Amino acid sequence: MTQSNGIAAIDIVVNIWTEEANRIRPRRDDFFGGKMKVRDDTLAFISHEEMLRRMDAAGIERSFLIASRVGRKGHPACYHMPYEIVAEAINQYPDRFYGLAGIDPYEGMRGVAEFERSVKEYGFIGAHTYPHWYELAPDHAKWYPYYAKCVELDVPVQMQVGQSMIYDPNYPLKSVGRPITLDAVACDFPELKLVGIHVGIPWTDEMIAMAWKHKNVFIGTDAHSPKYWPEAFLHYINTFGQDKVMFGTDFPILDFERTVSEIEALNFRPEAKRKMLRDNAVRIYKLPIPRADGCGL
Questions:
Q1: Are strands 157-160 and 126-129 parallel, antiparallel or unpaired?
Q2: What GO molecular functions are on record for this protein (predicted)?
Q3: Is 190 part of a structural domain of the chain?
Q4: Distance between CA 9 and CA 58 in Å, rounded?
Q5: Three-state secondary-structure class, residue 232
């Protein structure tokens, strides 16, 4: 495995992209292949083995695979990735993959119970969601039962903040993920680890403000190429926010190797880069593996 200055990176946001998974996920070639420039050799599907080969080439040791829940069941633009598909990948490659359970706020306590099973029975390490697919901001009451369960299980929840990136004329999505909506959640659940993914663009300064204010709020770097990260975000990673930011790609939205290469070109301070690429994920998700500096948890 090629490593970035000896750092075996951890990618906290990765979509499972096998043929089996993509039979469940609606094809959006105009979005993935068009707007997001996903490579032709990736667009249809790739095997776990090919994903691992690409992770190795980029120096990524482990990835968090998402069992996504994208919108309410029954709509042709929406899908729920079965937890079992991600659990099978974890069982096959336990030293490379971890699982994140997608959550649907409209499933109520039945969904909460299923999420709990994903943690207790499948070993998933957290929750994941896209608020815009439900047009419910993160501080809406329908999310709160899941937040309470995350606190009880002592696992983080990550959610897209910032604008909705996809537009489907048959299913237009409002951008409900302003980072400021995490403020009430962090106040109501001070024990809950909240991870705002997708950098918060175009409201990155607002996302930084939330992570600065609340000790339990963190930022994921996925879905936006590092060479386009706002200057304020680069400064935050390199200085007073170096314990708050975790590396992610949202693969296949971002290519593993290209993303790591772009991070290298940004010339972060070694300690700040190490924390972002690995150490913060180990600490925040309580992974039973060493940090990049060789220390335990």
A1: parallel
A2: carboxy-lyase activity; hydrolase activity
A3: yes
A4: 9
A5: helix
Domain range for 229 is 9-284
- Number of domains observed in the structure of the chain: 1
- Structure tokens belonging to residue 23: 């039979």
Residue 297 belongs to a domain: no
> Quick one: DSSP state of residue 256?
H
Report, as an integer, the average pLDDT of 191-219.
98
Residue 293 falls inside a structural domain: no
Confidence grade of residue 216 (pLDDT, cut at 50, 70, 90): very high
3-state helix, strand, coil in the chain (%, to 5): 40, 15, 40
Two tokens, residue 30? 């105009």
What residue type is 230 in one-letter code? P
pLDDT given at position 49: 98
Q: Is residue 51 part of a domain?
A: yes
Strand order in the sheet with 245-246: 9-15, 60-67, 97-102, 126-129, 157-160, 194-197, 217-220, 245-246
**What does the angle CA 89 – CA 195 – CA 43 come to, to the nearest 5 degrees?**
45
Average pLDDT over residues 28-40: 85
Residue 145 amino acid letter: P
Percent of the chain residues past pLDDT 90, beyond the cut: 84
Q: Which CATH number belongs to the domain containing residue 160 in this structure?
A: 3.20.20.140
Rg (C-alpha) for the chain, rounded Å, is 17
Q: State the DSSP H helix or E strand holding residue 63, giving kind and residue range, or none if neither.
A: strand 60-67
- Whether 196 and 221 have beta carbons less than 8 Å apart is answered as no
pLDDT at 225: 97
pLDDT higher than 90, residue 268: yes
Q: List residues bridging with 207 in a β-sheet.
A: none
Q: Residue 14 — left, alpha, or beta (φ > 0 → left; ψ -120 to 50 → alpha)? A: beta
Instruction: Return the structure tokens found at 91.
Output: 């069982």
Q: Is the pLDDT of residue 143 over 60?
A: yes
| % of the chain with per-residue pLDDT over 70 | 96
